[in-house]
Specification:
heterodimer, A: mainly alpha, two-stranded antiparallel ribbon, 11 helices, B: mainly alpha
């Protein structure tokens, strides 16, 4: 077997170990699952209720019917689950490591530091949001009176991957900044309040803002594109553009992480 | 402790709270960043208004409404329930109980002490309002401003008393934070923070009138945007203060019962 293949398998096994640790921890707090379920539904209601009111006396808004807009809401919730369940917990921990100087212990381990810190902690109970968003997708399809197409689902799956890579890269960029300005938790709030704007289809935004949220901060890529994919109306060039953007972002994030790490001198020295 | 003693302690408490607000100004700024929801909602409603106005709401009306919603959220929100959960769990509450002052009063004053900093935060929306809308929709009469002041104060008091009710529940159960989370979600939907109450379907609206939520944010916003005539505004403010009294009494009862259960551990 080639060296790269062995490396890949080794990291896959490491990922398994890290995930198992998080799952075991989460199983200690099984009760959270029962409480968080209804809470997830309530927060979904905050996302859907304005749409319910808006679409009471109109069929279409800025090119989106109620059933179609539901898909954007569903993706908003799905990506919230991805961020809160897989990306947030680990990367908040890095910021703490940097502040306290305990990052040294991670750096000493014989594996890639970015991999180790990114997989340090998962919160499986946040997957409640995944169930809720599946419910919303179903509601959307029932409202539209049709099901998904195979091609649409394939595109949506690709975009889920793209969106996760994008969000993760944005996060790594934020964390890299933590090496320079230690109080970076502030940036995480800025990030989540920006992400709040991703709950509407991008065509709801007036012209200049729409450009900002598509080309500069890729909110449209995160929720509007996948929703269009599920509806079977995503343009191929958009899919391609999104994937290129995600690849570029992740390369940028990797470079920024390396640069930050190179000048990291621990907290004590 | 006597009422006089409590009143004499207030300025010192306020000073401590204000110093804390200044020291943690970065955190305050962060918190403000996480309350941009009215702006996100304005995007949705202005997209609606671009096609056709909704009732009496056109684009300008929505802008005024959601600027007001941002301002009112800054003025009325507080975090006593989180503070109480934290202090009960950490055992810090026992130190508070040693002081000759009921902790509820000190929580209230500490929250109020953040107000001067909060007033700084509402400068940008106020400037936007004056620049874009030229002061339109603001109350025109002294009575109008007086009722807004009463309604904003009542909104703060109502949020605070609800916080105390939920916060004291942490004396009975391990943590009441999830309950607070549920309350927050319900507030988002029913208070007029996301959707003006006027635009709710009639039947739902009738229910919402009887729930406390719309009096925490929606009513002060409607008063700031001169939504009601004087008589109707006065009636709604009276209902709001009625809710304050209700939750105030409930909070005190819960507090008295709960504090007997409290066994300080830890620090």
């Amino acid at each position: 077997m080639s060296g790269m293949g062995r490396q890949f398998l080794r990291y896959l096994r490491l990922l398994g170990v890290q995930v198992r640790a998080s799952v075991l921890l989460a199983l200690q707090y099984r009760g959270d699952f029962l409480v968080d379920g209804p809470l997830s539904l309530l927060w979904a209601l905050t996302a859907v209720s304005p749409l319910l009111v808006v679409y009471r006396d109109r069929a279409v808004l800025a090119g989106w019917s109620f059933g179609e807009a539901l898909f954007v809401t569903g993706w908003f919730l799905l990506l919230t689950a991805v961020v809160e369940g897989t990306i947030n917990p680990s990367l908040t921990a890095v910021v703490d490591h940097v502040r306290k100087g305990t990052l040294d212990f991670v750096l000493m381990k014989p594996a890639d530091a970015q991999f180790l810190v990114s997989t340090a902690k998962f919160e499986p109970w946040k997957m409640n949001h995944v169930l809720t968003s599946a419910g919303i997708f179903t509601w959307g399809f029932v409202t539209l009176g049709r099901g998904p197409t195979a091609l649409g689902l394939l595109q949506a799956a690709l975009l889920l991957l793209t969106a996760t890579v994008l969000l993760y890269s944005l996060w790594i960029l934020t964390v890299s900044a933590a090496f320079y300005v230690v109080k970076v938790d502030n940036l995480t709030y800025l990030f989540s309040s920006l992400f709040d704007a991703a709950r509407w289809p991008s065509s709801f935004f007036p012209g200049p803002l729409r450009f900002v949220f598509t080309a500069i901060i890729p909110l449209a890529v995160l929720t509007t594109f996948p929703a269009e994919a599920m509806l079977g109306r995503l343009e191929g060039r958009h899919l391609l553009g999104a994937m290129v953007a995600a690849a570029a972002f992740s390369a940028l994030a990797r470079a920024a992480w390396r640069r930050s790490l190179a000048q990291y001198t621990s907290a004590s020295s | 402790m006597s009422v006089r003693g409590t009143v004499r302690a207030l300025p010192a408490l306020f000073k401590v709270g204000f110093a804390e607000a200044v020291a943690y100004r970065a955190e305050l700024f962060v918190w403000v960043l996480s309350t941009t929801m009215p702006l996100v909602m304005y995007v949705l409603w202005s997209a609606v208004a671009r096609e056709a106005p909704v009732g009496r709401y056109g684009d300008r009306e929505f802008l005024a409404y959601f600027l007001a919603a941002f301002i009112v959220r800054q003025l009325t929100s507080n975090w006593a329930a989180w503070q109480m959960n934290f202090e009960v769990r950490q055992g810090i509450l026992s130190m508070r109980l040693l002081r000759p002052l009921t902790p509820v009063v000190s929580w209230a004053v500490e929250t109020l002490a953040y107000m001067p900093m909060r007033l700084l935060v509402i400068v940008p929306p106020v400037v936007t309002w004056l620049a874009v809308l030229g002061g339109a929709f603001l109350p025109r009469t002294v009575a109008g401003w007086g009722l807004f002041a009463l309604g904003a104060a009542g909104g703060w008091l109502l949020v605070f008393t609800i916080n105390v009710c939920v916060g004291t529940l942490s004396l009975f159960m391990k943590s009441s934070l999830k309950l607070m989370d549920a309350y927050l979600a319900a507030t988002f939907v029913f208070s007029g923070y996301l959707i003006p109450v006027e635009l709710f379907p009639d039947r739902l609206r009738a229910v919402v009138e009887w729930l406390p939520f719309r009096y925490t944010i929606g009513l002060p916003v409607e008063l700031l945007t001169s939504h009601h005539g004087t008589a109707e505004a006065a009636r709604l403010v009276a209902v709001q203060w009625g809710f304050c009294a209700l939750f105030g009494v409930l909070g005190l009862l819960l507090w008295r019962r709960g504090i007997r259960n409290f066994e300080a551990y830890g620090g």
